Amino acid sequence: MHKLSFIVVALLALVSCTSSQDYTTGNWKRLSDFNGKARTDAAGFTIGTKGYLSGGYYGKEALLKDLWCFDMSDGAYGSWTQLADMPDGAIARQGATGFTVGTKGYIATGWDRAANDYLTDCWQYDPATDSWTRMDDFAGGKRRYALSFTIGDYGYAGFGYDDNYLKDIYRLDPTAASGSQWTIVSAFGGQKRMGGMAFVINDVAYICGGTNNNSDAYDFWKFDPSASDPWTRLRDITNTNSDKSYDDKYTTITRTFGCAFVIDGLGYVATGQSASTTMRSDYWKYDPAKDLWYYKWDGDRLTTFGEGQKDTGGSARVHAVCFSTGSRGIITTGGSGSSSYFDDTWELLPNEKVKK
User: Fold this and answer.
1) pLDDT tens-digit readout, 198-212
2) Collapsing DSSP states into helix, strand and coil, what is residue 6?
3) What are phi and psi of 139, to 5 degrees?
4) What is the bridge-based pairing of β-strands 23-30 and 300-302?
5) Confidence of residue 276 (pLDDT cuts 50, 70, 90)
6) How many CA atoms are closer than 13 Å to the CA of 136, on its beta-carbon side?
7) What residues pair up with 259 in beta bridges, in sequence order?
8) How many whole angstroms separate alpha carbon 170 and alpha carbon 182?
9) At the fourth CATH level, which superfamily is domain 42-194?
10) Residues whose CB falls within 8 Å of the CB of residue 12, separated by 6 or more in sequence, listed in order
């Protein structure tokens, strides 16, 4: 009887040792590697189940203007296809911003490295004809590292850097007559920023991250164009409440040149770097219903970027491209340091567990 009791106690101890603390939440699955040149600082947009990536930098002072499509629905790992380059009238660029309106994608602004000049042009890509059309130049003027998002029938772009940190934002109506496609949006009351992030949940955009005067921008805002006052400041992304524990690690959320996407009504930010150039390999999950960020979910730590059940080795990075469908979040390309460029592609499966 004593031996049986000992066995039962041992089994209970074993179960306790293999509790949820032995796992992390969120599996990073490696998908089909990008077929083009490894690069950083490209721009991208998502139409349906296809992600599009254009431009960027791959060293040797060389910029790119090619366009690639990642078909997420092609098998278990997706596939890449090269499409029409941006036309002769479009300058090869890095640091541009990309967004989608309806069934067409847009690439705007950026940096012409060869001329050391910022750009203001905006180009529309139509996948039905595999062709590019020049739209009105971005009304806010030249810049790089702007952020952008889409709500309804409009695209929005703004912030960024033109030798000054910026905080203006403009709306694109692609159906408007030439010369009136961009209109300014009501004033934003927060910090200037370049390299910030945006994601959209239920037709509300959330703006976070970026660098302002070499410091991490910590204010967090939502933008609802249907409201009389469209801008609402949410909880700052910093440890401001000494009596509560929810924000104890919030200082590790702020980042620049990271990726943001939405999966099933929750926002995610991943990769990027702090203003002190510390690379971020963690990711955080945001619940808009509670206005809270999480680095743990159901008691488990969220899995580090590139740490998966079968695949490991996804390096921390900046200037990656993110594809977001609302139910899938995918990160590809990017860079680390001055000469490391990536061509791997990763998808976050947020509900899968990974054994430590």
Assistant:
1) 999 999 999 999 999
2) helix
3) -70, -20
4) parallel
5) confident
6) 18
7) 270
8) 6
9) Kelch-type beta propeller (2.120.10.80)
10) none
Tokens of 218: 């910590």
**86: nearest Cα among 135, 39, 35:** 135
Which helix or strand (DSSP H or E) is residue 285 part of?
A: strand 283-287
Every domain of the chain and the residues it spans: 42-194, 234-356
Q: What is the mean pLDDT of residues 82-100?
A: 97
* Model confidence, pTM: 0.92
End-to-end CA distance of the chain: 36
User: In this structure, what token pair is assigned to residue 67?
Assistant: 């366009």
- Tallying the residues shown for the chain, one arrives at 356
Tell me, what DSSP letter sits at residue 16? H
| CA pair distance 279, 54, nearest whole angstrom | 24
Q: Which of 196, 53, 56 is nearest to 125 (CA)?
A: 53
Question: What rounded mean pLDDT belongs to the chain?
Answer: 92
Q: Amino acid identity, residue 319?
A: H
